[in-house]
Amino acid sequence: MIQLNLPAFEHQIKQADGKHWIFDVLRKKYLVLTPEEWVRQHFVHYLVNEMQYPRTLIKVEGGLSYNKLSKRSDIVVFDRNGKPWMIIECKAPDIAITESTVRQASMYNATLKANFLVVTNGMRHFLFQTDWLNNTTRVLDAMPPFEN
Asked: Which of these, 54, 60, 99, 105, has the minimum number of CB atoms within 10 Å of its CB?
């Protein structure tokens, strides 16, 4: 796997059944190591180790419903009241983040109504903050600290 524009971490990789697997510290199990999973695991470790987001408030690949379709969110960070605070959409490093990609993630977020949205391919990260009361969104330069 390639080096990402995220801090490195001590990952646990094994080979079985002709595939490479990476250990997910949140779900406490090995997952097939795809390029998207590589990005997702790096971002989870970044949130927990660098940004000090509470591990217990992060959910990986949670289900959500959008336009009567079942979808899976890559990463959701909840606030201390159990409401979605940040949604993170991960793409493989070779997938360009386009306006369409951001729009799709924004539509998912319209269901969750998280304050923050991140779209990343591990190389480039796009961060947005939405004010749902005023129906405005602004681009952020950096990850927000977790609010207690």
From this structure: 99
Residue 90 falls within a domain, yes or no?
Answer: yes
Which amino acid type is present at position 62? G
Tokens of 108: 């998912």
> Which structural domain, as residue segments, surrounds residue 85?
13-139
Torsion angles phi and psi, residue 68, rounded to 5: 65, 15
Residue 112 has pLDDT above 60, yes or no: yes
The sign of the CA dihedral 106, 74, 128, 136 is: positive
Checking phi first, is residue 57 left (phi over 0); if not, alpha (psi -120 to 50) or beta? alpha
Q: Is the pLDDT of residue 39 over 90?
A: yes
Q: Residue 6 half-sphere exposure, CB side, CA atoms within 13 Å?
A: 27
DSSP string, 15-65: EETTEEEEEETTTTEEEE--HHHHHHHHHHHIIIIIS---GGGEEEEEEEE
CATH code of the domain in which 77 resides: 3.90.1570
Q: Rounded distance, CA 5 to CA 109, Å?
A: 24
Number of domains within the chain: 1
Identify residue 64 by its one-letter amino acid code: L
pLDDT band at 66 (very low <50, low <70, confident <90, very high): very low
